[in-house]
Specification:
By secondary structure, the protein is of the alpha/beta class. The protein is built from seven helices and twelve strands. About 45% of the residues are buried.
């Protein structure tokens, strides 16, 4: 009888240990990663094949995302603004191709698109499109609107806010846009005045402007927002275009950070009729659209602009917020200071 009891006890202990071991294994299983998709293919900035890969790498570095890239049905490299850059016009598309895919490259913007996609396979979409991107077909637009209304995430980077001024719902998603046929009918200029008050200015005038590239300081305007929590009140960004005079409906939007558009320093030298606005203009925004969330960053004109630790950090945190509504990432120790920018060379 004692032997039988010992066998039963031994079997019970083995079973219990096995169950505890199984529970331990289940507990250490890593959570499923968020699914992100970068869409590119037409952008007036010819560096876009490289910046797509930079953003893909930045998101994967967080260990929170798996990242796919979808190229549109129409491919236009854009314009080589930086005449003194040594690389050839086609160098970026040749150096950073999509594997196992071929595509026709047009020498000018393509006006129509047959692009279709199942956005519901992803948690967040990152747009690396730009000015002159052809409007998606109506069915694709409706699918994307439904994706966002049902809780999808969107990240809009730099020239992506130039696209689709005629798409009303997209203008609501991004809150403020630039160029793309927009004018005072699209909405007011929005900025912080010297007293720290948000102004909606319905004045007539251009939609979208910037001066030469230079380092400029950003001011955090929503320090308790998940994207900005822990980020310094002021930080210096690497050389970039400072977008200003954006217009839009500005609904359900939070300005996360601004920069001061100096009347002379941010005046476009190619247009003597336009001066800098002389106001604190939005550079980072968070927008709610239906149940969805949008992180809008005007930063990122060229590869060196995206090497800024401020750009990297806000992209990573903004993408997580757009996908989930929260941010779990810490602000890195090498984040820029008020009077010192900081970059991480990307290879």
């Amino acid at each position: 009888m004692k032997n039988l009891m010992a066998v039963v006890l031994f079997s019970f202990l083995l079973t219990a240990c096995g169950e505890r071991k199984k529970e331990t294994v289940e507990q250490v299983q890593p959570p499923a990663k968020l699914k992100a998709l970068i869409i590119d293919g037409q952008n007036n900035h010819y560096v876009w094949p490289k910046t797509t890969m930079m953003m893909k790498d930045y998101l994967e570095q967080t260990d929170l995302f798996t990242v796919d890239v979808q190229r549109m049905d129409s491919v236009w490299l854009g314009i080589k603004y930086n005449k003194d850059r040594p690389e050839a016009y086609h160098s970026f598309i040749e150096t950073y191709p999509l594997e196992d895919k071929t595509y026709h490259i047009s020498e000018s913007p393509i006006q129509t698109s047959d692009f279709t996609f199942n956005f519901n396979d992803y948690d967040v979409i990152i747009s690396n499109l730009g000015a002159d991107s052809p409007l998606w077909p109506e069915e694709t637009r409706k699918d994307f609107e439904a994706f966002m209304n049902n809780g999808g995430g969107l990240v809009v980077v730099h020239a992506a806010d130039n696209a689709w001024g005629e798409w009303e719902e997209y203008n609501k998603m991004i809150s403020l846009g630039a160029w793309g046929g927009r004018d005072e009918k699209s909405g007011p200029y929005v900025y912080y005045n010297e007293a720290g008050k948000i102004i909606k200015d319905p004045s007539e005038g251009v939609c979208g402007s910037h001066g030469p590239q230079y380092e400029f300081q950003l001011t955090t305007r929503a320090p308790e927002h998940p994207i900005m929590k822990g980020i310094p009140e002021k930080w210096l960004h690497t050389p970039d275009e400072m977008y200003e005079r954006m217009r839009g409906p500005f609904e359900n939007a939070t300005i996360l950070a601004t920069a001061f558009a100096d009347v002379e320093k941010n005046a476009p030298p190619w247009d003597p009729n336009v001066k800098g606005l002389g106001q604190n203009v939005p550079q980072l925004m968070a927008i709610n659209y239906g149940k969805g969330r949008v992180f809008h960053s005007t930063l990122g004109h060229f590869d060196y602009s995206m090497e800024c630790v401020g750009f990297i950090t806000t992209l990573q945190r903004g993408a997580e917020w757009a996908a989930t509504g929260k941010v779990t990432q810490e602000v890195p120790k090498d984040f820029p200071l008020a009077d010192a920018s900081n970059s991480r060379p990307w290879k």
